[in-house]
Design brief:
Elements lengths: L1 E6 L6 E4 L2 E4 L1 E9 L12 E4 L3 H10 L5 E5 L4 E5 L12 E12 L2 H10 L6 E3 L4 E10 L1 H10 L3 E2 L5 H9 L10 E9 L2 E3 L22 E5 L6 E4 L5 E6 L6
Parallel strand pairs: 12-16
Antiparallel strand pairs: 1-4, 2-3, 4-8, 5-7, 6-7, 6-8, 9-10, 10-16, 11-16, 12-13, 12-14, 14-15
Length: 248
């Protein structure tokens, strides 16, 4: 019998060389085994006392050569091993975890950019939010805009944080011969506003005087400085897509 759990530890190391910064990302998955192989010729390459099993997992995560660990819940001893075998049979007070996968990206920003636009032309990654987004000026109805964003694995931009709202306020949206509004995620059912993932919208950033027309979807209007406007689902507008990226 074994149980699987994942420990995602964002290890951020800032390296500055001639003004160039790089962030290191490391993701480790551990698998717990109840009856690991033991060999009395095997000894840990590192051993120390730590207060919790999680702290022992973090030590293994931070050691590139660590492939398994034993944590004793009585003595608080944390032992790290370079292989999958351990020196002695584990007792009922000990926990054994084995590294199942370890992923390292030396430059998380470059990796995020690649995940954002590698197979989806037109997307840009803004690391300060962070958000992977695309602004499209092609006029579309609401359903068509949702389908368009979905074709690249995305959805309409979901403004669910203050920092994301500040971001759209800094974006220069352009008027074209056919549009001056850009659709974002949000729909009203009766009196309740929700995102497309069915989560309720808790904070609103309407332009003064909006919503004015009891309309059921949301857009950003050129000249409103990123504040919200209610827009008709059946009227042609541009759209802003967002793609959720995962680092594992």
């Amino acid at each position: 019998m074994k149980s699987l759990f994942s420990k995602m530890w964002l290890w951020l190391t800032l390296i500055s060389v001639n003004g160039v910064s790089s962030l290191v990302y490391q993701h480790t998955t551990f698998q717990r085994h109840l009856n690991p192989v033991h060999d009395n010729r095997t000894s840990p390459f590192f051993s120390s006392t730590v207060s919790t099993a999680q702290a022992c997992v973090i030590k293994c995560h931070n050691h590139p050569s660590c492939e398994s660990l034993v944590y004793d819940k009585v003595s608080f001893q944390c032992s790290l091993f370079e292989g999958k075998n351990i020196g002695e049979k584990i007792t009922s007070s000990q926990v054994y975890n084995q590294v199942s996968t370890k992923t390292v990206h030396q430059n998380i920003i470059a990796h995020a950019n690649n995940l954002c636009n590698g197979d989806s032309p037109g997307y840009f990654y803004n690391e300060s939010v962070p958000v992977c987004y695309k602004i499209d000026t092609q006029p579309r109805l609401m359903d068509d805009a949702v389908m368009f964003c979905g074709e690249s694995g995305g959805h309409l931009l979901r403004i669910d944080t203050e920092i994301k709202q500040k971001f759209v306020e800094s974006v220069n949206l352009e008027t074209t011969s056919s549009i001056f509004k850009y659709r974002i995620d949000g729909k009203k059912n009766n009196t309740v506003w929700t995102f497309s993932n069915n989560q309720p919208i808790k904070r609103f950033y309407w332009y003064p005087g909006e919503p004015a027309d009891n309309i059921s979807s949301i857009g950003l209007r050129v000249g409103y400085g990123g504040k919200w406007d209610d827009v008709q689902p059946s009227v042609l507008h541009g759209c802003i897509c967002e793609k959720d990226i995962k680092f594992n």
